């Protein structure tokens, strides 16, 4: 270490002497030599790593200099093609205007819609994070314009069917144990511990539909309506005929989140799917009429 310190001190003195002698020309020359050395390193490392490192630097600068969704989406695609999945995820999230855990999507912005889909694909294929993948897929399906043919719908449902088909008996036994422990915490009112164990159950068995539903209910008990809605929507992707979920989502949007348009949407979906003798029909019908006046009056 002492030798290295002396060497660096001598190098610094030499640099300063040349800088004083040649001035700005020496500084510019130093920068140019640094750039050339950087590209030589990139040229050597690219074939060794099997990744296009020059593309990484190119699109990292490209990504940083632009803020339009089209540029950010294109940078994400290039990162993904070059094998830099972490940076691809970052660019796609920037296209969705992430602030913390919150983001906003314009259904008319094709680049934002494709960013949502690509995030689902990356978390599914590369990260193996199935719950997060399902979150982005469910959001994509939810906001995709209904009057336009969806190019990815079949692919998404193929992913869902694959996750549901995962049936390792040993893993499912462990997942059931985790779910039972989580249920015990839930009924004791320890919702944080319940959520912790529900998440462990999903990690063991990503196709465990019941646990996604339970997670939504546990988050509801903690007044975390964003996560409650998130996991109920994932449950709906697995089981779109569960009418109780439509009521849960409608009530969350209506009474807690105050998103009346979305509440109206889920009340109407409940009316479409529920049997005519369901005792909640009359109340839901009243709420639909009231919300139509409220939303229409804005």
Summarize the structure.
The protein has 298 residues and is mostly helical. Helices cover 79% and strands 0% of the residues. It folds into three domains: 16-49; 53-165, Alpha Horseshoe (Serine Threonine Protein Phosphatase 5, Tetratricopeptide repeat); 169-296, Serine Threonine Protein Phosphatase 5, Tetratricopeptide repeat (Alpha Horseshoe), CATH 1.25.40.
Structure description:
This protein is mainly alpha-helical. It folds into three domains: 16-49; 53-165, Tetratricopeptide repeat domain (Serine Threonine Protein Phosphatase 5, Tetratricopeptide repeat, Alpha Horseshoe), CATH 1.25.40.10; 169-296, Tetratricopeptide repeat domain (Serine Threonine Protein Phosphatase 5, Tetratricopeptide repeat, Alpha Horseshoe), CATH 1.25.40.10. It is 79% helix and 0% strand. The protein has helices spanning 2-22, 24-49, 53-65, 69-82, 85-95, 110-125, 130-143, 153-165, 169-188, 191-204, 209-221, 225-238, 243-257, 260-273, 281-296. Helix 9 runs antiparallel to helix 10 (191-204). The longest helix is centred in the first third of the chain and has 26 residues, at 24-49. It is elongated. The termini are far apart. Residues 42-54 have low confidence and may be disordered.
Summary tags:
Serine Threonine Protein Phosphatase 5, Tetratricopeptide repeat; single chain; elongated; 298 residues; mainly alpha; 15 helices; 79% helix
Q: Give the class-level CATH name of the largest domain.
A: Mainly Alpha
CATH superfamily of the largest domain, by name, is Tetratricopeptide repeat domain
Unreliable runs: 42-54
The helix-and-strand class reads mainly alpha
Terminal CA distance: 71 Å
